[in-house]
Amino acid sequence: MEGMQSESLGLADWKWRKIMTIIPVILSGGSGTRLWPLSRASYPKQLLPLVSDNTMIQETALRLNGLDVQEPIVVCNEQHRFIIAEQLAAIGMKKPSIILEPVAKNTAPAIAAACLHAQKIDSETVVVVLPSDHNIKDKEAFQEAVKIAANEAENGSMVTFGITPTFAATGYGYIEKQSDSDSEGVSSIKRFVEKPDVATAQKYLDSGNFFWNSGMFVFKASAFLEELKELDEAIFSATSKSVEKAVVDSDFIRLDKDSFSENPSISIDYAVMEKTSHGKVVPLSAGWSDVGSWSSLWEVSDKDEKNNTVRGGAILKNTKGTMIYSKERLVAAIGLTDVVIVDTKDALLVATKSQAEQVKDIVDELKKAGNPVAVKYTE
Fold first, then answer.
1. Can you tell me the distance from the alpha carbon of 218 to that of 284, in angstroms, rounded to the nearest whole number?
2. Tens of pLDDT along 112-163?
3. How many C-beta atoms surround the C-beta of residue 232 within 10 A?
4. Cis before 96? omega within 30
5. Nearest CA to 72 among 80, 86, 60, 83?
6. Segment 155-212, tens digit of pLDDT
7. Nearest-CA neighbor of 87 among 43, 121, 117, 34?
8. What are the C-alpha distances in Å from 51 to residues 133, 137, 311?
């Protein structure tokens, strides 16, 4: 990915362009069950065009255009390898490194594997870790935050992006900052906190000291691996063995299953970021959403004058605040308020937006019953 030239060169720009090797790491292991029935484990939300004509993983990669970064490292499961390779090739990325996880072990082992591979490319590389299913409206603001974070990472910091909260959200984890903000708003991390109730979320919002936890990170690959080795040596050891024994198969890197399976299933937050003494948070106000549910997809989608969002064919009468997604059939909606209707060839979801996240429970019930519609499209 060729970086674009800047008209004015400050110190940060010079440092970014002349010294650093920056490698994006795109995590694509999720199943997106809260967006069922459109998203299924066999074809999850990151592979779907939810907010534009591009798929979510394509949007994630394209968001970096204009920065001087290398081709990305993608971590995914074997089932999606060809789809991901094809989707990235379609936007001009011919040689991404695609690492195949033999089993899902959450983000800490996945990022460790990516960092070990990144070090083979450049021992001093900085990695920008990005989930493949986020939506960010302001690309320029995002890129400026990446530059700030990369310069912090050059100094050994373990950086995450803190989303400036716009309401008292209960669906996100939060990050509390220390009182040592610099001129660019970068602060040390005081603590991570779990998803709060409404009253607690309002206190966080009112205090001005909390961010939403974005799940995006920037650090030197070597710094992350050093911290991981100190804080959770078992993950470092198991993942190192899986990379050492990895097999290159065509355009894919297959991690050794036996070694990788020794890893616990644990997030980077729990394994490293909540324990490190080098954590920093860079504020980000860029129209971010993790598009984790139908209600959040409605929020980031274009709407008509009655706040309805329609993808596919639909006729609406006396309907407002409603989302309809139907590629197979015409949907007629009359007298609805704040409803989600998702029609696919083998399943139909009808829910109020306020309870749409409970679709995950429906998927769990379908799995327990052995119904294949839970994980794949059926005839």
1. 13
2. 999 999 999 988 999 999 999 999 999 999 999 999 999 999 989 999 999 9
3. 21
4. no
5. 60
6. 899 999 999 999 998 888 999 999 887 878 899 999 999 999 999 999 999 998 999 9
7. 43
8. 10, 10, 10
